[in-house]
What does this fold into?
Amino acid sequence: MALVVQKYGGTSVGSVEKIRAVAKRVADARDAGHKVIVVLSAMAGETDRLQDLGSAVSARPAAEEMDVLLASGEQASIALLAIALKDLGHPSRSYLAHQVGIRTDADHQRARIERIDTSALRESLAAGVTPVVAGFQGIDGSGRLTTLGRGGSDTTAVAVAAAVEADECQICTDVDGVCTADPRIVADARRLDHITFEEMFELASLGSRVLHPRSVEFAGKYAVPLRVLSSFATGGGTLITVESESMEQPIVSGIAHARDEAKITMSGVPDVPGVASKILGPVGRAPIEVDMIVQNTGADGLTDFTFTVKRGDYARTLELLQPVGGELGARSISGDDQIAKVSVVGVGMRSHAGVAMRVFDTLAAENINIQMISTSEIKISVVVAERYMELAVRALHGAFELSEPNG
Amino acid sequence: MALVVQKYGGTSVGSVEKIRAVAKRVADARDAGHKVIVVLSAMAGETDRLQDLGSAVSARPAAEEMDVLLASGEQASIALLAIALKDLGHPSRSYLAHQVGIRTDADHQRARIERIDTSALRESLAAGVTPVVAGFQGIDGSGRLTTLGRGGSDTTAVAVAAAVEADECQICTDVDGVCTADPRIVADARRLDHITFEEMFELASLGSRVLHPRSVEFAGKYAVPLRVLSSFATGGGTLITVESESMEQPIVSGIAHARDEAKITMSGVPDVPGVASKILGPVGRAPIEVDMIVQNTGADGLTDFTFTVKRGDYARTLELLQPVGGELGARSISGDDQIAKVSVVGVGMRSHAGVAMRVFDTLAAENINIQMISTSEIKISVVVAERYMELAVRALHGAFELSEPNG
It folds into this structure.
């Protein structure tokens, strides 16, 4: 008998029929002898509907009240699932954030979980009552509602799993696991049975939308075995765990991609300490999230500084840079909002220096120009023109033989 | 400077525009120097939508989870109003039931308020922050959400007003006060400036849909001055207070009516003690609400027993009575579901014995047959065929000269 946390996202509880199907699935897990804690998102579309209402009432809706507004979505979905479970003759009870003591900081709309009081959940499980916990929401030190921001319900599920020391945290979603690449781009992309937290974190950060990076980071930190699987199909999905010595490491696990990127270059700025922070200061304070940063040193004491942002932040970023450019005497500020990022990820590349060369050779063979390069221990990311993105993903997927098991 | 509780119903917060209008109104009251606590219902249609979802998930949705589900409606509306108030530069904060300590019993879907912890509200007011409290919801002793049933938000408003000892509890609605009769039936019905709790309670119970009887009872019990007024028009509405010696008492204050009634008669049952409870026992346990009860004693040791129920309960009630009728050897069980109740209400009739006669004379003059009569200290109710209801209301309104001030 295992203790399992099952998290279902918005599309999995998006209708009355789907809620009943989820209830059946939870009841099946119970009948198979497992103890289950369920964590839910709001019904698909509900968070957007509430967000739109808030934005219609005020152009700058107060963050702490938006949290109260948005949290009502999960309140409805947990009640509905508890109703469906009881309808199947299966004891169940809904838990709101304050009832299960999900304590967060007071950073509204992007709060971070500080701790979870597990006593209510443990009592519920001991009594044979399946707890259905509202994802995405928490309470701060003064008892006010908070929300965790994007991917919040995944984070709730992982945090609950860590707190109760669950055997597994299952993220039940509309895909059947983590693939070597997006199957819509690469026809022979293969579901991975197993992947490490570090790889998953890179894949999640790099635009593979299966799991939110925060939840992966959290799961890694507390070593919660995480499984991504389909809400409705059968199959084991993808298990995400810490790396073990005995694991056979494929060199490369997958190819991730991110559209909707934009790059900005400030050319001919003085190559002296403090320039980077002068350039990125106003952007960071906006706050606009900066992804890749590349700086080349020139021989003339001047340098070109390039970084990427989300495409939606492109115009605003260019605007913010104008005064800085003047101040630094930059030669020019230029940019391109039709770029994409393609990344090759795998823990095995730590010990295989040849991976980078194979990436560059593969793209060169396809005549794809690499605009920026960024590397970490277990990934290589390149920026290319967006129109070459799909070709690049397919070429790299083939080059690393990812459609073959352990390829 | 007064301390005022303002309650807005679902139609008053039924759209983004209306929420902004309510915010303006609350801000105006603040700017006029008053301290305001706002109590809200869910946006119009929202409670029905949630109820339908719950009923679609289960034919018998668990009451305690329905409360969690339904309470999410008020959570959204209070957040939206707090956002709108802040958008006007007006400090405000939403309060859920557990945050303001609205303690109820554990009778889900029809809980009763036991007490309210006023410390959070008082602190908020002292800090110049207008509290926006979720109506309709409470928490029971174990911290679970409850709802108060029909008219729940009115009851919340009155209970909050009583707890903070407000100068006035304003029920802001889509009518501009309490009228001498339904203006849709009586063209020259007049808004009452003033009415007593007892009269209002009778009018509310008798089908005048302005206020829920429970809230009126509560207000009377704690002597909270209650005012019914329009959410959007100006005007003083109707003030409901305890009767004072000096008040000039009109004999009759208003004419109420209730459609959708049905009556059932069990004829020829033994005229012995315990018969009434034998007949009404199964009905009361169903539970079906019984309104008027009339029993006439016959000379032959048999009696006819008649009572009224809501029309929707008519068929079920007839069904429940069959075995009882057999047991008691009743001659027949008959009924009529095309009846209506018309009531004349006024504290002044206590000392005016002639009121009943004027009611009977007036209806006789219109050739309207009276099927049942029921009286209390301050009201006379008659049951008539539904098709004569409007005529009866108009005739009585004229007979008591209610279109004239103090008529």
Residues 255-399 of chain A form a domain with the VC0802-like fold (CATH 3.30.2130.10). Chain A touches chain B through 40 residues (CB under 8 Å). Chain A has a mean pLDDT of 90. Chain A has two domains: 3-244, 255-399.
